[in-house]
Every structure is written in structure tokens, then in C-alpha cells.
Design brief:
The chain is an alpha+beta fold. Helix content is 32%, strand content 23%. β16 and β17 form a beta hairpin. 21% of the residues are buried.
Length: 381
Amino acid sequence: MGIIKAAVNAVTGALADSWLEVIEAAPMANNDVIVPGQAVDQKGRSQNKKGGENLVSNGSIIHVLDNQFMILVDGGKIVDYTATAGYYKVDNSALPSLFNGQFGDSIKESFSRIKFGGISSTSQRVFFMNLQEIRGIMFGTQSPVQYFDNFYESELFMRIHGTYSVKITDPFKFYMEVIPRENITNNQKFTFAMPDIRQFNDEFVSELSTAFNQYSADGFRISHISSKTREISKYMADALDDDWNQLRGFQIVSVAMQHPQYDEESQKIINERSKMASQVSYLKDPAAQQAFMAKSVGEGISGAGSNPGGAAIGFMGMNMAQNMGAGVMGGYMQNPHYGNQNQGYAQQPQQMPQQQPQQAACGAELSPATKFCPECGTKAE
């Protein structure tokens, strides 16, 4: 038993009346990975549906579209398949045709290992696998992931959410290891989505946590992780290659992550450290230093009068702060990198030389401002 390729013009011509049915894939949504076949209307031509829904009789035509992998199942065992788009006639007297399509001869090894799947061997059905990229598979961490960030010098805890996509690489392994037997028995489609793929999601999140630990050890800031999706996709594909690709016949294609959601304590640390970093960067500018000191002095003068200990104490405290600030600014002013930028700063007032006391003719000592001696009346020398 098997299938043979049919001419396209024969399918749509008068010879179609002699065939029992034409079978195509049931409607296939984005995340559907396998759907049963269904008999379709031949544009008003007569058709025999005595075999029932998805039951194939000898002489039936199977229509395979692009990016579809058709398998002909008899009693749970795959008796023929094709990965090449076109029309195929069921011929139970023919040997398996093995149209390998994009998979080449390597898929024959997997085909030779297919055994009965425990379902009845009295019916022959057609199923179609989706060979397109299966997108939008949602994931999320149930508990916070720990990440040490060198920039913040802290252990941060966050939850990670996003989506990933997969692609079938070996339809036979996927059929045997992923598709539930009841879906074949009950002639039902299988969708790659929760809750049916919970185990795969748990494995994905576990490996993702390992990837984050590696990025932490490499010194990446946590805020930059969202831009590393391509690297993470490659890492995840390599990490899950043995379990997913080699054993189950599908692999990771891409990963898209949302911005991490930090717990309350981690968010507080990030906000405080970011604020401190911006202030330090701001005060490295000499103009910003001068503006900061002017603001501080102005606030000191404004608050001196309302000081509970009196204006004198208020001004004394303001002078202390000003002297401390001047010392800081002086250090920057002496820095050779600032060059002539220091010329605009106020200079310290020069002290006037002190005048010596004067002496009158009578020997009396007079103050510098006295012109005549009050004792003898002589003019000061």
C-alpha cells in the first residue's frame, strides 16, 4: 500500500469522477502542528464518502500544500508519507513511495523505526503536519530568577516573560514522541500550546535560567538582556538540542523577551543606584559644581534668619559649608584637565598691610589715624 503522484490536470478533469474522494488538511491555525485530513467538495463533481471522515479508500486523492508533511496511517503505523506539495493517489498495491522533499534521504532512517502506536489497525487515515515556524508560544517564570548585576553590585530578583517559536525538524520523531496517541485515535488535531506543552515550557524556563546565570557571570547589565535575544535564541537551541531536536524532532527558532519585572526590593536598589550615578556624573562638570555651590550658599542665607539659634549661628554654619565646598572646588580647579576653566571663579580678597603706630615729640605713642599729640600738641611723626 502507498501513494503515487497524480497529474494535476487529471485531478480537475473528467477522471476525477472515478475517484472516491479528495482529501486535504483540515483548517490549520498558527500553533496547530498536526491536523486530520478531510474530504472536500470537488466543485459539484460526484464523490463517494462511504469511507467516512478522514478514512481513506483505495484510489482516493490526497492534496498536499506547501509547508505540509502528509502521513498515511494504517492502524497507528505510518505506511507512507510525503513532504512534497502536489496531488497523490492512494494505491494499496504499491510500495511506500517515500517522497522525502526537503528532508532528503536522512529521514528514511527515522521512517524505518516507526512502530504501531497502539491504535486499531482496521482504518487508514491521513494527517498533515505543519512545517512552518510555530510562533507565539508563551512562557513565564513561576518564581523570581536571581541575577547578580556588577553595575548595581547587588543580587536582583525578577520575573521573565515572553514568547518563543519552534520548528519541526523530524516529523517521524515528532509524531512518535510529542503527538498524544489519543489525538490519532480520536482523529483530532494537536496544538502546540498550554496546557499540553507544560513539560516543554518547564524545560525551556529551566534552561533560560541557566542562560541568565551565564550572562551574569559574563558581566552583562540586566537592562541589556532584552537586546540579547538573538544570542539567547542560539544558546537555547544549543542547550535543548539533545532533548528537543535529537529525541523529539523539533528545535528552538527564536526567543522574544519582555522587559524583566523586578521585585520591590530589587526595583528600589535600581532606582537608588541610578540616582546616585546620575548625580556623580552631573557634579563632574565644573559649571555644575559652581551652580551647586551658588545654590547651597543661597539656601544658607535664606535660612540663616530663621535658624532657632540665631542668625549668627546660621551664618557660621553656612560659612563652614562654604569653606568645605570651596575645598572640593579647589581640588577640581587645580586639576590640569580643566585648564583655563578656573579663571572664572572668584578670587580670595588680598589682605591690606597693617600700619605701624606713630610717636609724638614728647614720646607718647599715637594711633595711626592721629595727626597731633593730645599731650604736647606737636604733630605726629
